[in-house]
Amino acid sequence: xxxxxxxxxxxxxxxxxxxxxVLAAGLTAYGFGRASQSRxxxxxxxxxxxxxxxxxxRLERRITDFTAGFxxxxxxxxxxRAERRAVADAVGQILDGHPDRARxxxxxxxxxxxxxxxxxxxxxxxxxxxxxxxxxxxxGWGRVYxxxxxxxxxxxxxxHPVADAETERLGxxxxxxxxxxxxxxxxAHRRAGEGDAADMAHRRDSVFDAVCDELAERGLPGIQLHGxxxxxxxxxxxxxxxxxxxxxxxxxxxxxxxxxARDFAVCRAWVRSCPLEGQDNVxxxxxxxxxxxxxxxxxxxxxxxxxxxxxxxxxxxxxVTSRWASATSVRP
Length: 332
Hints:
Elements: H1 2-38, H2 59-67, H3 81-95, H4 99-108, E1 111-117, E2 124-130, E3 143-147, E4 154-158, H5 167-177, E5 181-185, H6 207-217, E6 222-228, E7 238-241, H7 249-261, E8 266-268, H8 282-290, E9 294-300, H9 301-304, H10 307-325
Parallel strand pairs: 4-5, 4-6, 6-9, 7-8
Antiparallel strand pairs: 1-2, 2-3, 3-5, 7-9
């Protein structure tokens, strides 16, 4: 009889331990889920559960793989105003810490929101991308990458990927070079549309421009990256300009000095007349109207086709973006 009682007690204690373990695991999982929800942008997008989200991606490779198929025949459809506004408003919702609201806006225009971790920096980024990118007739509306690891303080803009060869690679490296950045990336070759419809730097009716407007209206300074044929500005490796405004001149001087320190021959548009100053750039004009710093940077093809020189150019840009990243606030 005593043996049976002891065995029953042992079984009861074991069962209690198992039950307590299950309850503890459940409470831990519940608490983790609640904590993740309370952080706003930290939960994976519905497309990426804990079981399917990749441990990390090389964001530069992801961006250059995306642009690799761009050519003059890759296709572009002009977005309607409501479509442009939906993507721009979604960017604003993410910046305000409301990713679920952003997903709803994006879903209405067949965009998607993913959360990615860059394997080189360990920083997490929101990726806004067009679900129709890989269809037979892509719309060409581009992508937006938003750093989720730090307060957002600045943007880099690539309006002519592939057409201005390797600016997409430079844009990726600029984004990864300093925390708190947003990369606005055009989704088509600049000649992919009817007339100049896909020329993002000179059109107001694009998703690209609507997103840049949203950022400028929030007071975020921006740097736009371009490229030129070597014979378009003989004797120069780079042209640095503040566009049609003056707010970016101090930052332009910092950038020009950083480029010069790396043996780039720089034409400074605030000092002398330079080719390719970006006076007609529509994002620059918006920034000027908002009194927000804006830099328009052109790099020679011989620079952009050298991986080492692209790395040096990205390093020089950090002289500006790291300063922007350290700002305590932007416009309310």
